[in-house]
Amino acid sequence: MLKYAESFCVLVEELHFSRAAARLHLTQPALSHQIKKLEQQIGCALLRRSPQRVILTEAGSILARELGVALSHVKRAVQQAQDAARGDAGALAIGYCELPQAGGMTAIIRRYTELYPGVDVTLRNLPTVEQVAALAAGSIDVGFLHPPLNTTQLLLRMAGTEPVVAALPADHPLVAKPILRLADLSSERLIVCAESVGPFMYHSILAACGRAGFQPRLREEKDRWHAMLDQAASGLGVAIVPETLTKTQENLVFRHIEGLDVTLQTAIATAGEPTRPAVLRFLATASAHLDPPRSK
Predict the structure, then answer these.
(1) pLDDT band, residue 91 (cuts 50/70/90)
(2) By C-alpha distance, which of 67, 252, 281 is closest to 167?
(3) Which pLDDT belongs to residue 93?
């Protein structure tokens, strides 16, 4: 019926079978056949024919008005579907941890939205463990998360690493040292991400302290890196946080720690090899940002 509807709308515009047939690249008998088929399907006469002109019936006028609106919606839907198939439109849900700069995420998204403004990008702030579940469930398409992970279901693309540093109150005695040794923190309470949230980092810090000859006193934070900074600023301990956070609080001083060779890794994750064009183009944009071509 869609083909007949398009032919009918062209005929309504021209009100002349020969001109309408020429626009449709049909013969006049073929166009007449289509209009008759449409009338049969609808069950009423849509027009009256005369040698000089085509006259619409009342039913034909109503159908022409409503079909014009409907066909414009159909054409727009087809265009949107084609855009989505190419990756130029549609939606993309991205999960990320608390560090939006990690892995170059914000720069990658800005570039992607410049290249594909028709794609509706949404962000969901989720811990790594929740991103794993969200990717598996399909509620996010891409995740910026922190490996290693105890799963083989995800496809990871490494996006960067950064060291962890000590965050101290500005009036802390250790601020006088430009670089700390891990042993300098032996009598401090260390504020670290909870084992349940970041087991790899938790155990890496614990192991490094053991190699430095002391058993650390730990305060575990389950929710946010910034909560760890708030605790450090309040004098509740020395927070061990990613270097990305060094410019976030004015009343804290950040120091690198010799002997703490722990890094925070960031990876771009998908649930297996993606097939959606919007996801593939996002990954291509990320790859171009993370590994730009070298000039000759």
Answers:
(1) confident
(2) 252
(3) 93
Pairing of strands 189-193, 180-181: unpaired
Mean pLDDT of the chain: 88
* Tens digits of residue pLDDT in 10-19: 888 888 888 8
Entry pTM: 0.67
pLDDT confidence tier of residue 232, bands split at 50, 70 and 90 = very high
**Domains in the chain, CATH or no CATH each:** 2-86 (1.10.10.10), 90-158+267-290 (3.40.190.10), 160-265 (3.40.190.290)
In angstroms, rounded to a whole number, what is the distance separating the alpha carbons of residues 173 and 221?
24
Instruction: Decide: residue 150, CB within 10 A, 0-12 exposed, 13-18 middle, 19+ buried.
Output: exposed
Q: What residue has token string 């171009």?
A: 288
